[in-house]
C-alpha cells in the first residue's frame, strides 16, 4: 500500500511539473546594432520568480499555467511591464529590441541603451560577477577628463602612480607584482627597467573599458600579486560616424620660461632614430650638435576616428572602427637634486637641477568585428603606438664633494622612443546550449631605442675658486659621452578555453560550469647598448675654456687633432678590433599553462569558483657586458590553486571571498649583469635572483543601493616569501642592484568605495536631464618585511649589503590612499549638454628605496592633487572641452630618512588644455 501511495505521489508530482510552461526570449539593443543585452533584470510581477539575461541577452523562466506580467528593468531606465498568458507545456518566446527613443514597436519594446563604456553598466556587471573586480569605462574616463590608461587606473581604490615614472602601485605592490593585458592577451614591456608596458602610452580614445582584477583568476598568468590590468579595446556599435578633434595645452612652468631648451636631432613628431655614425672611432663623425636648441612650449593634439556597421546575410553583422591620433606636451621642473648622502648628512653630489621635457604620443588602431550569427563571433584588432620622451637636463653645483668646491656643470639630453605593434585575433563560439569555445592569439612587436643620448661634465678651472671659468672634466672617462641603446621584445601568445554547462534546472538554466583551457606565451628579448666615451687626455691646465652655448667648439675633429680627447667604448678604442661590439643581453621566456575550474551555484544565493592552474616556466638569459660574460638558464614548475565565492545577502548586497597562490618572476634587467648609468647613480643586475611565492586573500562586502551606486569594503592580505627588493650594494660607487632581501613580507589593508547619485531629475515635458553625483575611494595599508643581511650575502657571491634596519615597510607602499570626484551633468534640448567634474587625490608618505649602512630610507613625501574638467556640447555635432590639472601644484619631495636630507625636490606646474570636436 505504501509503495502504491509513493508511486502515485511521484506520478502526480511529475504530472504537475510537466504541466509547467516556459517564457523565454532574447533582449537586443537597437541603438547598438541589435547587440545582445546582458544582465537585464527579468521579474514576474507579484512573485519572487525572476532571472537576468545571460551574456548573449537570453533569459528563461519556468511558470505554472496562468496570466502573468513580465517586469523588465535595467540601469535606471524606464521599467516595462508586459502582460502575457502561458499554457501547460507551452514555450512562449518574447523577443525584445530596445530603442533609445522609447517608440513602441510592433512587439514589446524596452527603453534601453547599454554599453560596457557606461559607468552604470560596469557596476551592474560587477554586481553580477562572482569574482572581485573593478572596471572604469569610457564614460567615466571622459567625464573625469582622463587622457591615458595609467591615469585612469590610478583613479581606482588602492592604486597610485609613482611620480616621475610609469610604475603603478597596487596595494603597495609595484611593477614586478602586476601584469597588463589587452583583450585578455599579454602585452610586452616598453622599457628594460620594467616588467609591464607603460600604461600612459595608451590613449583612452581607443578604450571601451579597463578591467582591474586584484584577485588571481585561473585564466590569467600566475606572475601576479597586485593586479591584472586588462585594456578592452573599443568595438564600434551603431550607425556610421566620423569625428575629428583638435586641441592645445600648456604647462605653467614651461610657458613661464624665457627660453625652453631641447636637444638637437629628434623631430616634432617623435619618430626619430639617429643611427650610430659610420667609423665613430676613426675621427669625429657625429652629425648632431652637442648644443641645446630652442623650442616653443605649447602642446597640441589632433585625432580622427570613424566607424560603421553593416548587415551580412540574415543574421550576420560586420562592424569596423578606425582611430588615429597625435598629441604632445611640454613640461619644466627645477629644484634640488642630491646624491650619495652619508650618515653624517653630507651629500657627495649637490645640484640645482633644471629639466625641460617634451613628450609625444601617436596612435593608430583598426578593428573589425564579424558577428557571423548569434552563436559565432570573430574579432580582429590591430594597433600601432609610437611614444617618445625628450628630456634636456642641466645640473649646477657640487659634482663630487671631494673635488672642486662647487659650480660644476653637468648636462644630459635623452631622447627615448618606443614603437609597439599589436595584432590580435579573437573568437567566441557557442557550440551548443551547453558548450562554449573562446580563443585568442596575438603577435606583438616592440622596439625601444635611446638614440644618441648626450652628456657633458664641466668643472671650474681653479679648484679653489668655484667662480673660475669652466673646462671639460677629466675625472671619469664617461663624464662626456654619447649613448645608443636598442631593445626589442617580440612575443607570441594564445588563449584557448572550453566550457561545459551542467546541472540543468527546471527553468532551462544551469547550476554549474566546467572550464578547461590552455594558454602559452613565447617571448624573445634582445638588448644592445654602445656608449662612446670622450676620454680627456690633456691635463686641465692645457684645456681651453668652455663656452656653454658652443660645446661644439670643443667636441669636434679639431679637438681630436689637437690631442684633447679620444673616443672609445667600454671594450676599447680604435686599436681594438672588437671595440664596436655592443654590450648586450638576450633572453627567452616560455610559459606553458594548463588550467581548469568548476563554477557551481550551490544555493540560489551561494556561488563558488574553484580553479587550478599549472605553469611550466623557462627563463634563459645570455649576456656579454662590461661586468661579465655568461648565461643563466632556469626552469620552474608552479602549481596555482584559487578559490572564489559569492554569497548574495539580498538582491542588492553581496559578500565575496577570494584566496589564491601565485608567484613573482625576476625581470631580465634585474638578472642581467649590465651597468645602467644615470646621473649620480648606477644599477646592475644580479643573475642569482629567484622567484618569490605569493599567498593572497580578499574578503569584500558590496551594496548597490540604486542603479549606478555602490558602497563596498574590502579587507585583504598578502604574504610573500623571499621578496625581491632594490638595494644599495656596499661598494666604492654605491651601485644599486636587486636581491631576495628576506624570508617574508606581509601586507594587510582595507579598501572602501562609495559612489552616490545626489540629484537625478528629468523634465518630462522638455526631456532635459540634470545629474549630480560623487565618488570616493579610500585605502589603508599596513606592510612589513624582514631584511636579512646574512641571507643576501650567502645567496649572492660578490654582493654585500648591510641593511640599516632589520625590518621595513614595502617600497612604494603608502599607508593611506584617497581618490574622489564630484560631477555635474546637464542635458538640454537640441542635443546640448554640459559636464563639469572636480577630481582629487591623496597619498601619504612612502618608501622609495631601503636604507643601508646606517643611512635612512629614501622616502617620498605625501601629495595632494586636484583637477577640474569641463565639457560642453553645443549641438549633436560640435563640442568643446577645457581642463585644469594639478591645481594644487604640490612640492614633490624625496628625503633620506634619519639624516633628514632632501635628495629631490621640484614642482610639476599646472596643466591647462582646450579642445574641440566635430562629428559627421
TrEMBL record:
TonB-dependent receptor plug domain span: 130-223
SUPFAM superfamilies xref list: Carboxypeptidase regulatory domain-like (SSF49464), Porins (SSF56935)
Signal peptide stretch: 1-18
Superkingdom of the source species: Bacteria
UniProt keywords, alphabetically: Cell outer membrane, Membrane, Receptor, Signal
Localization per Swiss-Prot or TrEMBL: Cell outer membrane
Main location: membrane
Official protein name in the record: Outer membrane receptor protein involved in Fe transport
Organism: Flavobacterium cheniae
Upper taxonomic lineage: Bacteria, Pseudomonadati, Bacteroidota, Flavobacteriia, Flavobacteriales
Amino acid at each position: 500500500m505504501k509503495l502504491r501511495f509513493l508511486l502515485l505521489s511521484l506520478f502526480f508530482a511529475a504530472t504537475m511539473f510537466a504541466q509547467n510552461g516556459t517564457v523565454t526570449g532574447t533582449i537586443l539593443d537597437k541603438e547598438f546594432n541589435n547587440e545582445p543585452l546582458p544582465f537585464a533584470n527579468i521579474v514576474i510581477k507579484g512573485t519572487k520568480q525572476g532571472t537576468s539575461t545571460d551574456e548573449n541577452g537570453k533569459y528563461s523562466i519556468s511558470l505554472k499555467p496562468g496570466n502573468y506580467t513580465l517586469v523588465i528593468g535595467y540601469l535606471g531606465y524606464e521599467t516595462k511591464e508586459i502582460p502575457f498568458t502561458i499554457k501547460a507545456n507551452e514555450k512562449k518566446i518574447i523577443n525584445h529590441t530596445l530603442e533609445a527613443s522609447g517608440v513602441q514597436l510592433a512587439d514589446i519594446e524596452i527603453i534601453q541603451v547599454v554599453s560596457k563604456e557606461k559607468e552604470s553598466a560596469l557596476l551592474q556587471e560587477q554586481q553580477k560577477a562572482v569574482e572581485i573586480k573593478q572596471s572604469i569605462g569610457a564614460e567615466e574616463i571622459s567625464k573625469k577628463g582622463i587622457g591615458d590608461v595609467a591615469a585612469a587606473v590610478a583613479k581606482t581604490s588602492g592604486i597610485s602612480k609613482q611620480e616621475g615614472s610609469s610604475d603603478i602601485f597596487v596595494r603597495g605592490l609595484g611593477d614586478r607584482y602586476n601584469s597588463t593585458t589587452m583583450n585578455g592577451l599579454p602585452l610586452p614591456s616598453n622599457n628594460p627597467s620594467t616588467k609591464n608596458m607603460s600604461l600612459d602610452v595608451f590613449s583612452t580614445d581607443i578604450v571601451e573599458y579597463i578591467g582591474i582584477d586584484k584577485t588571481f583568476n585561473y585564466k590569467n598568468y600566475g606572475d601576479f600579486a597586485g593586479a591584472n590590468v586588462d585594456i578592452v579595446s573599443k568595438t564600434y556599435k551603431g550607425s556610421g560616424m566620423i569625428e575629428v578633434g583638435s586641441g592645445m595645452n600648456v604647462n605653467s612652468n614651461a610657458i613661464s620660461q624665457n627660453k625652453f631648451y631641447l636637444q638637437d636631432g629628434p623631430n616634432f613628431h617623435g619618430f626619430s632614430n639617429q643611427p650610430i655614425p659610420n667609423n665613430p672611432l676613426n675621427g669625429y663623425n657625429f652629425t648632431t650638435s652637442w648644443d641645446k636648441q630652442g623650442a616653443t612650449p605649447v602642446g597640441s593634439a589632433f585625432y580622427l576616428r570613424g566607424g560603421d556597421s553593416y548587415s551580412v546575410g540574415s543574421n550576420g553583422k560586420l562592424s569596423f572602427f578606425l582611430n588615429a591620433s597625435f598629441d604632445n606636451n611640454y613640461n619644466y621642473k627645477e629644484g634640488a637634486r642630491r646624491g650619495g648622502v652619508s650618515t653624517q648628512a653630507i651629500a657627495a653630489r649637490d645640484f640645482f637641477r633644471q629639466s625641460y621635457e617634451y613628450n609625444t604620443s601617436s596612435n593608430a588602431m583598426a578593428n573589425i568585428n564579424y558577428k557571423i550569427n548569434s552563436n559565432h563571433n570573430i574579432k580582429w584588432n590591430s594597433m600601432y603606438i609610437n611614444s617618445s620622451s625628450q628630456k634636456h637636463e642641466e645640473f649646477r653645483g657640487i659634482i663630487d664633494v671631494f673635488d672642486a668646491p662647487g659650480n660644476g656643470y653637468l648636462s644630459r639630453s635623452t631622447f627615448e622612443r618606443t614603437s609597439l605593434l599589436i595584432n590580435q585575433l579573437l573568437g567566441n563560439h557557442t557550440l551548443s546550449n551547453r558548450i562554449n569555445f573562446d580563443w585568442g592569439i596575438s603577435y606583438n612587436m616592440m622596439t625601444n631605442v635611446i638614440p644618441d643620448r648626450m652628456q657633458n661634465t664641466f668643472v671650474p678651472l681653479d679648484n679653489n675658486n668655484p667662480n673660475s671659468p669652466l673646462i671639460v672634466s677629466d675625472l671619469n672617462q664617461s663624464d662626456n659621452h654619447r649613448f645608443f641603446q636598442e631593445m626589442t621584445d617580440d612575443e607570441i601568445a594564445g588563449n584557448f578555453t572550453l566550457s561545459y554547462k551542467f546541472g540543468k534546472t527546471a527553468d532551462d538554466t544551469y547550476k554549474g560550469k566546467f572550464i578547461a583551457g590552455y594558454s602559452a606565451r613565447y617571448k624573445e628579448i634582445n638588448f644592445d647598448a654602445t656608449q662612446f666615451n670622450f676620454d680627456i687626455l690633456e691635463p686641465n691646465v692645457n684645456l681651453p675654456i668652455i663656452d656653454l652655448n658652443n660645446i661644439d667648439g670643443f667636441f669636434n675633429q679639431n679637438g681630436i687633432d689637437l690631442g684633447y680627447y679620444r673616443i672609445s667604448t667600454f671594450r676599447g678604442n680604435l686599436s681594438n678590433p672588437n671595440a664596436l661590439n655592443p654590450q648586450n643581453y638576450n633572453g627567452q621566456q616560455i610559459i606553458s599553462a594548463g588550467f581548469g575550474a568548476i563554477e557551481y551555484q550551490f544555493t540560489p544565493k551561494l556561488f563558488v569558483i574553484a580553479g587550478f592552474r599549472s605553469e611550466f616556466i623557462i627563463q634563459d638569459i645570455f649576456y656579454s657586458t662590461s661586468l661579465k660574460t655568461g648565461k643563466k638558464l632556469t626552469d620552474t614548475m608552479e602549481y596555482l590553486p584559487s578559490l572564489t565565492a559569492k554569497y548574495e545577502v539580498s538582491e542588492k548586497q553581496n559578500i565575496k571571498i577570494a584566496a589564491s597562490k601565485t608567484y613573482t618572476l625576476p625581470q631580465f634587467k634585474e638578472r642581467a649583469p649590465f651597468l645602467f648609468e644615470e646621473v649620480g647613480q648606477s644599477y646592475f643586475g644580479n643573475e642569482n635572483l629567484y622567484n618569490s611565492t605569493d599567498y593572497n586573500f580578499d574578503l569584500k562586502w558590496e551594496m548597490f543601493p540604486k542603479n549606478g551606486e555602490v558602497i563596498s569594503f574590502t579587507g585583504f592580505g598578502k604574504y610573500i616569501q623571499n621578496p625581491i627588493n632594490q638595494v644599495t650594494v656596499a661598494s666604492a660607487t654605491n651601485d644599486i642592484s636587486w636581491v631576495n632581501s628576506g624570508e617574508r613580507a606581509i601586507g594587510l589593508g582595507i579598501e572602501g568605495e562609495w559612489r552616490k547619485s545626489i540629484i537625478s531629475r528629468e523634465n518630462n515635458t522638455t526631456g532635459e536631464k540634470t545629474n549630480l553625483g560623487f565618488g570616493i575611494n579610500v585605502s589603508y595599508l599596513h606592510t612589513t618585511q624582514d631584511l636579512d643581511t646574512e641571507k643576501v650575502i650567502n645567496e649572492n657571491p660578490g654582493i654585500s649589503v648591510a641593511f640599516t634596519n632589520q625590518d621595513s615597510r614595502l617600497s612604494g607602499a603608502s599607508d593611506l590612499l584617497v581618490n574622489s570626484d564630484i560631477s555635474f551633468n546637464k542635458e538640454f534640448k537640441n542635443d546640448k549638454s554640459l559636464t563639469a567634474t572636480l577630481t582629487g587625490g591623496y597619498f601619504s608618505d612612502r618608501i622609495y628605496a631601503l636604507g643601508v649602512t646606517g643611512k635612512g630610507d629614501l622616502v617620498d613625501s605625501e601629495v595632494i592633487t586636484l583637477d577640474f574638467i569641463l565639457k560642453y556640447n553645443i549641438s549633436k555635432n560640435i563640442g568643446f572641452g577645457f581642463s585644469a590639472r594639478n591645481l594644487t601644484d604640490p612640492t614633490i619631495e624625496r628625503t633620506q630618512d634619519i639624516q633628514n636630507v632632501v635628495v629631490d625636490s621640484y614642482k610639476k606646474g599646472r596643466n591647462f588644455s582646450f579642445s574641440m570636436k566635430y562629428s559627421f
